[in-house]
Amino acid sequence: MREVRRFVVKVGSTLVTNRGAGLDTSAIARWAGQAARLRQGGKEFVLVSSGAIAEGMQRLGWTQRPHAMHELQAAAAVGQMGLVQAYESCFRQHGLHTAQVLLTHADLADRQRYLNARSTLLTLLGLGIIPVINENDTVVTDEIRFGDNDTLAALVTNLVEADCLIILTDQQGLYTDDPRRNPEATLVRKAQAGEPQLEKIAGGTGSTIAKGGMLTKVLAAKRAARSGAQTVIASGREPDVLVRIAAGEAVGTLLTAQTTPLAARKQWLADHVQVGGRLSIDAGAAKALRSGGKSLLPIGVKGVEGEFERGAVVACLSPEGTEIARGLVNYNAQESRRIAGRASGEIEAILGYIDGPELIHRDNLVLL
Questions:
Q1: CATH classification at residue 99
Q2: % pLDDT > 70, the chain
Q3: How far apart are CA 357 and CA 137, in angstroms?
Q4: What is the pTM of this model?
């Protein structure tokens, strides 16, 4: 951990807003001071901060998180002002500037926008600026309805090729059970990211202010591991938590990455939170993808779900219904249905043209 150069630090809304009581500027100041000390040692930081909606609720005098989409968006718009102001003020005391970056899943799903976001973030880091990232809740409805900043932090970790994702929460780390209900629960000190057992023991949302739970953090670690990043889940209230983690101290839960980092293009494919459609494939095609290093041919496809255009990212489902791969499809949904189950040599006769003998070429496919 002492050799880690680039960190992504995600801070939950429960911490940032002191359990919904308004922005905890003293906590933000402590994290800023720790980051500043580590910056002097050559470390780089990207912050992913929750708290815009919670801060907006506090400013508007709302005690319960609303359900209406327009009210959630209004709260995010109001709260984002205070959130960014707090980070900028705290970091400026240490001679550091921050930059606000609002992202959506669509920004990372589109290849050109993905590369633009990556270029901007790397430029900011090169200038010594601390990017503060949040989901653009004000304008994108499904980010509020389905998104969470744990997932966003993992996507950003892969985006900037960070070495470590630190998720600061109000718990000491991942426990074998919910410690608030089970006093016998013990802290998981170290495990491999992606172990199925971790998802089984992870609980749900811990407060009415926070949107994510421990499960989203475990899944975020699994996603971050695709680019070789370690993940630490720790309490943001621990003294000097960032400094101690960077120094290699065993704080919280360490989820290690054992897999070889994916190539950048395939990492982008794997990172898609939402896919355009789904292809159900037979056992032979599943085996060819898993162990044979083959492309997906139409003859192995049994069903096509969704409406998508040529070039969309689609999921490949095994006969058991498990997603085993995803990739860029060569034909749109209607065309895919027409050639599903047919030999590649029949494509031109069926469609009147051919754009390749495969539905998904191996170079545009990643195994999950």
A1: 3.40.1160.10
A2: 95
A3: 41
A4: 0.83
